[in-house]
Amino acid sequence: MATPSQQRVRVRSKRTSETPSLPPEELLPEVPPAKISLDDPALYMNRELSLLEFQERVLDEARDEKNKLLERVKFLSIVCSNLDEFFMVRIAALKQKLGAGSQDLSVDGKTVTEQLASLRERVERLTLEIYDCYQARLLPELAENGIVIADYAALDDRERAEVDRYYTETIFPVLTPLAFDPGRPFPHISNLSVNLAIVLRGADGHKHFARLKVPEKLPQLVAVPAAPRRKKAGEAILKFVWIEQVIAANLKSLFPGIEIVESHPFHVTRDAEVAIKELESDDLLETVEEAVWRRRFRKPVRLVADSAISDHILGILIENLEVSLDEVYGVPGPLDLTRLRQLPSLERPDLSDKPFEPWVPKEFGTASEDDIFAVIREKDRLLHHPYDSFQPVIDLLRQAAHDPDVLAIKMTLYRVGRNSPIVQELLEAIENGKQVAVLVELKARFDEESNIEWARALEREGVHVVYGLVGLKVHCKVALIVRREQDGIRRYLHLGTGNYNATTARLYTDLSFFTCEPDLGADATDLFNYLTGYSRKSDFRKLLVAPITLRSRMADLIRREMAHGARGRLIFKMNALEDKAMIRLLYDASRAGVKIDLIVRGLCCLRPGIPGVSENIVVRSIVGRFLEHSRLYFFENGGNEEMYAGSADLMPRNLDRRVEILFPVLDAKLVRTLRDVLLETCLGDNRKARIVRPDGGSDFTPVLGKGSVDSQAWFIDHRGRAGNY
80 Cβ partners below 8 Å, 6+ apart? Predict the structure, then answer.
């Protein structure tokens, strides 16, 4: 008799024309539901393919004609940037496994080789869709709105003269051609750079090769000055040409007296997954700094070239970059469309989203001048960014830095960004005699250099700086302020779902929670003792802390909901769902009759809607103006509702390899607000939400006009009303 893993049929579900079906091997069990084994790999979606399905959803925003045109351009730039990171991190990790001979199977039962083959096929399809969107949709619509991206060859004589003048005055002085011959080695090609591969012919008839890097600091779209006669009242005509086309047209200025045979652009993506040998390190800061430096020279994992590139040039690149043919991608247009991010900054309000000012709740508005601590003592407070301002978080630290009754400030910093007002307030605090301890996570990928700079700046001023824990990333978002008051010492907390970054707080949806609840304050103290000392605290009063208690407590909470059967209800909002043990628990809960709504922005390895396994689970993904980043976990609990928020997604790395916290929302009114307003509005979104199918793809059929609900637009319109909204 065939085993369940052998008795399979293809996932059958309708797909849109723009989201091709997954490879034929994506199968589901064909056995009686009660006998389906939850260990069957067919019940789980490959995490990398799921990430690419998320990129498809981002691309949908670029294709959506109801979005403002320059916002669509921004989304196309974002999906290309995301794809770069996908190669630098995810493909690179798989390549490292392949090189190490790993026999590990993915959650869906694929070998590393099988995963790489599936991902190549999916990336090729996605790349063609990206260029179709750019060339067939965005370019014509931009032109209709007075913004033209032209080919250099299509410019008239006057326009070429103007562009060539810009080349001579601005571009030419920056360029450095590098020859490749027996006396000059093949030059280093920096990660994500756009380059020209040039073939020259000397007077002796011999061919030579040179590489020319396109300057990254100059505008990648060169503005073409308009003729005075074309300017009309009230009309803005902007024309651009890609910088590499301008350079290619003027190569003779760099190689006088030598024939230019051909030139083609190319673009390299390098492995960014550098292992940091923490156990062998005497100084973690220096070790991370060295790892960041080494990253520049990691092996390429992708070579992107103009699809018209000659075999001769391609052969030179393949040989000297040491890439294989399956790492080469040809594209039918300009390389690196992340550079389109230059356009959304144009002063065209008619083509961009209407700006809005984040709401500052009245109590925080006065507290910035009066006593913010009194506001928090009155009751727990909650802010929903970016609709509510991030300024109260900065104000809290500013008052703490200057308040003579504040004794100590302890804080975790993961991605603070540059020119951080948060760090400035910490520096003010140390100047004012406060005891300040900060954990700066140096291993925050792609933010290492910024974090190293801040760590050194804080140390110079006398702040107690901890760099992180060996083997763990510290990802939790917590600030603890210890204050002396008339009735004794009181601890004030800010707990968040997002980073202490004032810039991303305007771009990401996150929650800020302010409290002075004693048990939470005591837990935070224990947490910092764990982070800065040798505490081996194994239990906490109310916080769920990874890697100590979060996994087991989350499992207990799900099992408790299962005990309520069909009366059970779970609503989880997160960035990613990957952990197999958690997915199995959710499958078990679905089998027990629990109604489960999952709002998962990115990758999701759970397959919803499988009879006998997950028919009670609905998965939504919301992609819109802001990056959905808040994590919320709601448990109906037979009417005794519980809500947790925090920094943790349900991924192995969050549960086992990071320090994370989920904090309970203790005020019943705030629980109702989060459930009835935030979560239910997201669940009612029929404009930006995608419903994920069993095959991992998603249906996007936005409702327009009457009855349309765009949750992010709703939160903008209702900020400051009905409590936090």
Answer: 130, 336, 337, 338, 340
Q: What is the CATH number of the domain that holds 675?
A: 3.30.870.10
3-state secondary structure 108-157: CCCCHHHHHHHHHHHHHHHHHHHHHHHHHHHHHHHHHCCEEEECHHHCCH
- Take residue 272 and report the two structure tokens written for it: 């960014």
Q: Is 333 helix (H, G, I), strand (E, B) or coil?
A: coil
List the one residue out of 452, 394, 387 whose CA is nearest residue 428: 394
Q: Is 634 exposed, middle or buried (0-12, 13-18, 19+ CB in 10 A)?
A: buried
Find the radius of gyration of the CA atoms of the chain. 28
Averaged over successive runs of 10 residues, the pLDDT of the chain (725 residues) comes to 30 34 45 78 96 97 96 98 94 92 94 96 97 97 96 95 97 95 88 95 89 96 82 67 98 94 95 63 64 78 94 95 95 96 94 95 76 94 96 96 96 88 94 93 76 84 84 92 96 97 95 97 95 82 96 98 97 98 98 98 97 96 97 97 97 95 96 96 96 93 90 92 52
Q: For residues 76 and 542, give the distance between their C-alpha atoms in angstroms, rounded to a whole number.
A: 43
Residue located via tokens 């060339």: 135
459, with CB counted inside 10 A (0-12, 13-18, 19+), is middle
End-to-end CA distance of the chain: 59
This prediction's pTM:
0.91
Residue 91 inside a domain? The answer is no
User: How many angstroms separate the CA atoms of 398 and 422, rounded?
Assistant: 8
Expressed as residue numbers, the domain containing 342 is 142-351
Look at residue 444 and give its three-state secondary structure.
coil
Total Cβ atoms within 10 A of residue 529: 14
Secondary structure in 3-state letters for 276-322: CCCCCCCCHHHHHHHHHHHHCCCCEEEEEEECCCCHHHHHHHHHHHC
206 tagged catalytic: no
What CATH number should be reported for the domain holding residue 222? 3.30.1840.10
Residue type, 273: E
Q: How many domains does the chain fold into? A: 3
Query: Do residues 378 and 410 both lie within one domain?
Result: yes
Helix, strand, coil fractions of the chain, as percent rounded to 5: 40, 25, 40
Same domain, 454 and 480: yes
Which among 475, 494, 564, 629 is annotated as catalytic?
A: 475
Which tokens hold the place of 596?
Answer: 């489960």
Question: Are 687 and 552 in a shared domain?
Answer: yes
Give the span between the Cα atoms of 627 and 623, in whole angstroms.
7
Residues 520 and 480 in one domain: yes
